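Lecture 7, part B: from sequences to assemblies.

Below are the input chains for today's worked example.
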Amino acid sequence: MKAIIATTIFGIIMMFASFMVNNKSAVSTIAVCLFAILLGINIWDMVGTPANSPQLFYSGMLRVEHYSLWFNILMSGCTLLYVLLMGKEIQKVGSHVAEYYALIFFILCGVYVLSTYNNLLMLFIGIEILSIPQYILAGSDKRNLKSSEASLKYFLMGAFSTGILLMGITLLYGAARTFNIMDMVSILHSDALNPLALAGIMFIMIALSFKVSAAPMHMWTPDVYDGAPTPFTAYMATIVKAAAFFAFLRLFQVSFNSLSDHWTIILAVITAATLLVGNVTAVFQQSVKRMLAYSSIAQAGFMLFAILAVNAIAWQGIIIYAVAYSVATIGIFSVLVKLKDYTYDGFNGLAQKEPLLAFTASIFLFSLAGIPLTGGFIAKYYVLLAVVQQGHLLWLVIFALLMAAISVYYYFRVIIAMYFKTGSPEMNSPVTMGDKFMLIVTCILVLLLGIFPQLFLNNI
Amino acid sequence: MVLILLILIPLLTGIISFTVKGDGAKALALVSSICTMALSAYVSGSNYTAPITYSHDWIPILGTQFSLVADGMSSMLCLLTGIVVTVVMIVSVNKKVERPGAFCGFLLLSQAGLMGVFLAYDALVFYVFWELALIPVYFLCSMWGGEKRIPVTFKFFIYTFVGSLMMLAGLIYLSMQTQGLSSYSWNDITRAGASLPPEKQQWLFWLIFIAFAIKMPIFPFHTWQPDTYEQSPTPVTIILSALMVKMGLYAILRWLIPVLPAGVAYWSDTVIVLSVIGIVYASCIAMVQTDMKRLIAYSSIAHMGLMAAVAFSGSSVGMHGVMVQMFNHGITITGMWVMVSIIEDRWGTRDMTKLGGMASIAPQMAIALVIISLASIALPLTNGFVGEFMLFNGLFSGTEANHATLMVIAGLGIILGAVYTLNMIQKTAYGNVVKMITTKDLSVNEILGLAIIISLILFLGVYPKPLLDLTSGIAGMIVK
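Predicted structure of the full complex, as structure tokens:
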């Protein structure tokens, strides 16, 4: 796992860069290069690992499977895409640009730990490494009261949920007498189930639901996503969330698989509530940014399907969903930051003023809504397929499809504003050729995901 | 490879059309649609020997293949698509439209989607095209439609999207039941569906049927239709009513009746009753309409209702009639809409109470209107007659006695159809002369477009054999 070390070192390099280099755009360039190198290191990790034989690292604290490495590569790739799309906006947030990049490197370190942890303590550490930089990023626009509020709220809620997670881990340790998630499998049997273990699983489930903003533990999400500076919202809503899901799936798939009878129904209710709250509340939003916050809750509802399914397709489902959702969301946020007014009316007439922006935004919204030939369709298809194959929760599948239809309503409101209404949206910054190029690349990625999904799944 | 071209030509020219400024787009679209029509005619022609097929790996891990098959029914509908789009392009050559590049582009994209729906032989490919055909139409209605276009088309979109998601759930479930690895090919899906126990087929039926019922539309899922037809620009209304509603009926024949035979048998009476209610209800409402567009919209519900009822009757003659009538109805209603758009262009209104005297000031126009209207009420020697005769014949010869009773009620719809159609002719062609805004009889391109329609109406009315032969084998295959 060279990537974990590399990302930490890169983070430290960025912190030094903050007083060595004064030019903001030079800092950005260094960061982009380092992210590209990091992606290369991840690929190197993958090439060096034989398929089908998991390897243990650091005294068995990390267990590296092929699909974990593939997930790391994809998430690093998404981060690179994110930095390329958002670089200029990150520079505008405040004066500590290098630190922002350093924090993103540290978040990535958390992502790598969460995708490979083999021990509940590593899960805890991973969640913390993932979360603490986010608390800072959420409050990075110091002059903005809403940003400070978001940071404080996120911190308090996050600390609270971490407490619950630790409580769960403790109870589970009491029952299983080990922190190792693989060793647990043989100890946790349904026939002689220790109530302590069950309580522990519930605590962990609730804590992780906090992190992935599943209802009813979602309350912090809209305020934090709305208050945080938009470029960082984009990161929190995508790669961070995907990593939390991957950790969630890893634990419940590997360790608690045999106990699925006990927790499936609770998770199914959480899933239904998440879909309902996310989709229905998103309909009533006036600000596109807040709508995207609720839509991220709704999308989390779909990702929960992968955890419910407890079968092999779920891995592919979560990976393809994570990528499709991240790429499309980063794309739509990078269009959003170009605009001054974040309400629906702010989008009026964008198609006349910036046809390319409007076109790419439509593709991203199609993908989020799950229209065929975009990544979002294949992603939704996969997670639903996983549950249909498992066979017990067909009512939930039908419910989810109805909710997907509702989601069309609020995603298409943006398209209606852009194409069918007249107006002249005020832009935050001029759209350069570089922006256009990156948007087209992102757009092509979304379509590739939808038309040739096997490109993104061949390695697992 | 020919089949791929049928989809690719409109797709690529559609995309190119977006970048063309000015009226060049119209010329491009016209050329493209003529090529597609010629190609679909070739595909239909070669069908008398052996159907053309095409297959290529698409997403192997999902068990889906990009496979297309043009059997009689598919190639007939492709031909219909080719003809209708060509007529639309010919007629709108001299019409002014804002942003012609985008307009023609969306029209061609929807044509590509339709071709895909009619050719798909793999359930997932079918689903993808089913959705793709919808999106360009959504943009067309919302950007070029009437005053209330945005809420109306939004309703239309949400309606059909809900339906297609339900269908997707049904198709995923079916593909899980296939032997060995999950597969979406028509053969596997049909085998899997037919071998399911009847109770499962009964609820699966609704999951899949609702999508098709909304598209056709069958009462009570029809509420999106009159508003959308009224608000859409006429070329789009033609695409919607001549082609997109056929998607629903075609899908029932291909993806429902053979796939879930026990479910269909169980619910067929319900669907027939709904269809007959739709026929009578739509006919009654059509009689009191004064807006020509709404009148034709409701008459279309009645005609589609009859076809849907017969499709579920389980008679092989009737099924053959449904296929033939799909083609005929597409041709006739295209003619109707073209006439409406011409009338609106000349008089500036579609309100029949403000029209009159067409026969004396624009005789060519009146002749065309009368012929097309007579085809719409299925007078002998027009194409409508052949299809409708087979439909009724099929229902009466069906096994179930109560079908005959229902048919008599449905027959009422035919009489009412004659009432409102003739009433329309009377109000527009005869009576007090109302002056036109632009005094002009048919222009050259309109004559050309209508000539295609009318010659097809008369030719297929007198000699329907080519059409009957094309689809003769398929009906037996569906009913077994």
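Note for the exam: Chain A is about 75% helix and 0% strand. Keep this in mind when comparing with the next example.
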